[in-house]
Amino acid sequence: MTDLSKRLASEKRFKYFAMFAMCLSLFFVVILMLKIFTTGSGAFIRTTIEASVYFDPSAIEVTNESSVKAINKASYVNLADQIVKDNHPNLSDEKFILVREMYTRKFDFQLRDYIASNPNIIGKTVTMEITASSDLDQIVKGNYPRDVPEAQRKINDYQLSVLDSLDADGKISSTFNLWFFTNGDSRDPETAGILGALMGSFYALLICFSFAFPVGLLASIYLEEFVRPGKLTDFIEVNINNLAAVPSIVYGLLGLGMLIGVFGMPYQVPLVGGLVLGFMTLPTIIIASRASLRGVPPSIREGALAVGATKTQTVFHHVIPLSLPGSLTGTIIGMAQALGETAPLLMVGMVAFVMDIPGGALDPATGLPSQIYLWSESAERGFLEKTSAGIMLLLGFLIIMNTIAVIIRRKLEVKW
Amino acid sequence: MIYISLLLVFLVSYSFYFIGKKRALNISTQRDQTLSALPDYYGYYSVIIILVPAILIWFFLLIFKSNFQEIYVMSPFLFPDIDTWSASKTGLIMNKITNLSYIVNLSDIDLSVGDKSILKMASDSELIAAKNLASFDKIYGWANVTLFIILPVFLGFIATRSISSKLNAQPIVERVISYVIKGSSYIAILITFGIFFSLIFEAVNFFRYVNFVDFFFNTSWNPNRAFVINASEGFDQEALKDAFGFIPLLTGTILIATVAMIVAIPLGLLTAIYLAEYASTRVRDIAKPIIEILAGVPTVVYGFFAALSLAPFIKDVGESVGLPVSAESALAAGLAMGVMIIPFVSSLSDDVIKAVPNSLREGAYALGATKSETIKKVVLPAALAGIMGSFLLAISRAIGETMIVVMAASLRANLTFNPLEPATTITTQIVTSLIGDVEFDNPKTLVAFALGLTLFIMTLILNVAAILIVKKYREKYD
Q1: CA distances from A118 to A61, A121, A126, B40 (A)
Q2: Are B408 and B355 in contact (CB under 8 A)?
Q3: Is B191 on the interface with A (CB under 8 A)?
Q4: Cα angle, residue B52 at apex, residues B50 and B54 outer, rounded to 5°
């Protein structure tokens, strides 16, 4: 036997060691969240440049009498260039290109939308807040250093001097970046939005739910209420537990090889993505649902059987309503996992550049996590911000879904 | 279109639920006959009569669509000598017609130069076939919708007509329900088989291009070679010998998973011990959910974190002490993966430790053991099997993890066990080989399935071992 004081010291050491390990784990959570929030918050703000805009009829292909369709089809590139020239008079051609780069490339679309929503504007002059280019935006936000040599900057000395004079006139301002929530993806960070990916994920989850919830619920009923224990049930049980631990990328390959390759379903669509996510979520739902069926006391079943209900009636009229909150909790947690799953979406092609906002489960789309992946692969600093903002949004949805699950568990689950 | 027709089937069957129920009620109230079952069951009966055949036919039409397509396009009127064609020739012509069908109806303005020459080279009958094919989807869709309006309504009328007081709907309905729930639980098995067969099927195709032994024992991995050789004269096994060597991927996967385990196992286990044995209820209630947040964070977030912050940080630290560290080092990916797996290990081990009966602890205390001695010499040995199970699941998780390594690990295969060097993994290569053009006749695409199959078998062995160990362990203390 060692000395008692040594033993007590080792006891203390062990305890602090364990405590340190736990604190380190907690520390990782804090670091991760901090990093995401500090890089991402900028994406919700965009820099704008105030300019007086004269809708010169000679530079516009349409008139006040044109139809909406004609307005949407026409080009406004010349008008955009002219407005930049009007606001920065006496520029040489070379300098004009530099100044034009300070405004968003999609300026003409901003003009088109303005004309479409304000009829009779042509020929008039208004003051507009024009979105700045992403590089300018990053300078204003302080994410790009200003004091490095010119060759290392995206914005050169001349553009900086123009920026400073604009700033001195009070024309540079920051507004809430609504585009981030209303646009689809774009090649330019300043106009890229998350709505397309959000809708893609929404349709995929809808498909995932409508497949996995009914099938999972019914399977758990069979395994828990109807089946006699035997070799087959053991096999199904091991099988389901194994499916819960199969890497998600393998489900993606199932989607690609089976659904797309054999059944000829289309590539890139939320229908296939949703089905694959559904296959993945199924074991989670079955396991949760079985646990909640097991929680319903036998007295409920015996009471129903005693008054003459059949087995089916007992289960469907009495047991399921009592176990449903538990199944739903499991389903929501499973769906939250599915929402964050990226690899299967990559496999079924939901990771392409899609500008349009998908209108259904059969339109090409990306998902929220695959959009995050796409943006993270992009080299521009502006997309870094978008990536973090996308992650914040994704985490927000996960927190909401998990909170709903907790509320359902607290409020509706019956305690026996 | 075909999905609209499925929706139609459901709508029609839903309305026949009410019609069937109404008819049963009419029989009992107006004709004053006693029904053999509750009125609801006659509604369910109608739904079953409609849904079961309609959905079977729907699936049949979905699966055999391409066969119908071929029959429709490859008519003997267009190609008189079709009977003499070999199967591969038919396939080639069908491919050509499919490609033509995308462009055949476009106007001249929308055609690029290459497309025009393809159009000129096609024969007249091929062009007609292509036009037919272009219109096939529309015709097929409309035929589908029409069929799935007429068929359910027809079936619905049959069902409604057959309802009488003598018909006992209840046992029929209950039997169908029992089939449906049985079928649902078999879907889980079907998914496993589906995974297995879709992987095997494409993997076998892959091994037609690449020798089995070359794949598993070769040490060089350059899948881009398949591109270079592709265009000219097809593939031959000699040329692809050094293109798909699995060994560097395996070592990369093991390297990164090892780094992850070195982080996750001690931290996860100690966290679990602290939470289960030392922490007060209040600390436990706060700390446990926070650590579980780590488990709920999507892996794409860890990947972003690893690539953006961790990898540059490790590179800077390494360079400041004079070590050459790659920007895509296995260490960064492994560390991020380890952090992801901490809660996985801790919550599984926590459950296992809590399941050890208190009598064992009390026995140790009674002999004068301190708390840490009890944990180290009594609780952990008793929980060993369960903890091992959770480690195995964690390893399976680490080798199957995709996004972290796709974003933070290297794409270049590198046969090394040095964590400061770049390394690639099985999952990374699956993703890279499938991003871009997916062609099921190119070994560069097909290799993903061979890799997937290997990955699936590796994780399957780990998972089943873990499941069986944990199951045995539970039985021991239940």
Answers
A1: 16, 6, 11, 58
A2: no
A3: yes
A4: 65
User: Scanning every residue of chain B, which has its alpha carbon at the shortest distance from the alpha carbon of A239?
Assistant: B189
- What integer pLDDT is reported at residue B258 of this predicted model? 95
Residue A143 CB partners (closer than 8 Å, separation 6+): A42, A381, A385
CATH no. for B247-477:
1.10.3720.10
Q: Tell me the domain boundaries of chain B.
A: 1-167, 247-477
Tell me the C-alpha distance between B16 and B158, whole Å.
Answer: 11
The fraction of chain B above a pLDDT of 90, given in percent, is 32
Tokens of B98: 């499919």
- Give dist(CA B430, CA B444) in Å, integer: 10
Comparing B362 with A263, the larger pLDDT belongs to B362
| Cβ count within 10 A of residue A416 | 9
Among A11, A267, A384, beta carbon nearest to B371: A11
Dihedral over Cα of B409, B411, B417, B419: its sign: negative
CB atoms within 10 A of CB A311: 14
Q: From CA A289, how far away is CA A323, in angstroms rounded?
A: 8
Length of chain B: 478
Q: Which residues of B328-345 are buried (b: 16+ CB within 10 A; e: fewer)?
A: bbbbbbbbbbbbbbbbbb
Give the list of residues 6+ apart from residue B79 with CB closer than 8 angstroms, or none: B85, B93, B125, B129
Complete domains list, chain A, with CATH: 42-177 (no CATH), 195-412 (1.10.3720.10)
- Number of Cβ atoms within 10 Å of the Cβ of B208: 11
Nearest CA distance, B181 vs chain A (angstrom): 5
Beta-strand relationship, A125-131 and A45-54: antiparallel
Cα dihedral sign, B4-B9-B12-B14: negative
* Residue linked to tokens 């089943």: B464
Which residues of chain B are within 8 Å of residue A32 when distances are taken between CB atoms? 294, 297, 301-302, 305, 339
B300, B400, B456: residue with CB nearest A372? B300
**Spatial contact of A103 and A185, defined as CB atoms under 8 Å apart:** no
CB A188 within 8 A of CB A104: yes
* In the block, residue with structure tokens 């909790």: A329
Q: What is the pLDDT of residues B416-432, one digit of tens each?
A: 888 888 889 999 999 98
Burial of A205-220, coded b for 16+ CB within 10 Å and e otherwise, reads: bebbbebbbebbbbbb
Dihedral sign, Cα of residue A171, residue A176, residue A178, residue A184:
positive
Name the one residue in this structure whose structure tokens are 């008008």: A79
pLDDT of residue B231: 47
Residues forming beta bridges with residue A51, ordered by sequence position: A128
Give B239's pLDDT tier (boundaries 50, 70, 90).
low
Which residues on adjacent β-strands are paired with residue A125? A54
Does B270 touch chain A if contact means CB atoms closer than 8 Å? Answer: yes
Give the integer Cα–Cα distance in Å for B257 and B263: 10
Instruction: Please give the residue that has the higher pLDDT: either A318 or B229.
Output: A318
**Dist CA A390 CA A398 (whole Å):** 12
A362 phi, psi to nearest 5 deg: -110, 10
φ/ψ of residue A53, rounded to 5: -115, 120
Q: What is the CA radius of gyration of chain A?
A: 29
Distances (CA, A) of A21 to A85, B214, B265, B268, B346: 62, 45, 11, 8, 11
Residues of chain A whose pLDDT is less than 50? none
**Given its phi and psi angles, is residue A37 left (phi above 0), alpha (psi -120 to 50 degrees) or beta?**
alpha
The answer to whether B469 and B391 have CB atoms below 8 angstroms apart is: no
DSSP 8-state class, residue B356: S
Cβ distance B76 to B82 under 8 Å? yes
Residue pair B253/B404 in contact (Cβ under 8 Å)? The answer is no
Contacts of A110 (CB under 8 A, 6+ apart): A104, A128, A130, A131
**pLDDT score, position B36:** 82
